[in-house]
Specification:
This protein is mainly alpha-helical and 150 residues long. Helix content is 67%, strand content 0%. The radius of gyration is 16 Å and the shape is elongated.
């Protein structure tokens, strides 16, 4: 059914099923990647996926894409915060082509990962000397936190 409200009800049903909904991860990923236009299906699908399969590469990729686009809403932030080291690696991989605003968003997401960001410590450390003072300061704070927690 192409109606967004039907998709949203179906995704809510998946959330209610919990682990029993794991076989439905592929169609939920499809909704997260290509939602019906003008609907909130994407956000609801991402939220459900963050509980079912938080380290899924497709989920993390779409979440980083939304982060880089500056999209408001918490579902992609929630997904990234639950994605552990795989999320840290996807976020760090996006740093190279990111503009300053995007770098700040990525660093915020990495900071939210805590110890899971340790696997990309060297990528974060490279930004300590970034020409933008806010990027450099945020990177230094993360590096310091990771080094103090060793």
């Amino acid at each position: 059914d192409p109606r967004p409200e039907v998709h949203i009800r179906a995704v809510h049903a998946c959330e209610a099923l919990g682990e029993d909904a794991r076989p439905l991860v592929p169609p939920l990923l499809d909704l997260a990647e290509k939602p019906p236009e003008g609907s909130h299906v994407q956000w609801v699908a991402i939220r459900a996926l963050s509980g079912l399969d938080p380290e899924n590469e497709r989920l993390l990729a779409v979440s980083v894409k939304l982060l880089l686009e500056g999209k408001r809403g918490g579902s992609h932030h929630l997904a990234l915060s639950r994605g552990g080291q795989p999320a840290a690696r996807v976020l760090a991989g996006a740093l190279g082509d990111a503009d300053t605003r995007q770098k700040l968003a990525i660093l915020s997401a990495l900071a939210g990962l805590g110890e899971d960001a340790r696997c990309v410590h060297d990528d974060i450390r490279k930004l300590v000397d970034h020409p933008d003072a806010e990027v450099a300061k945020r990177a230094a704070r993360i590096v310091e936190g990771l080094e103090q927690s060793r």
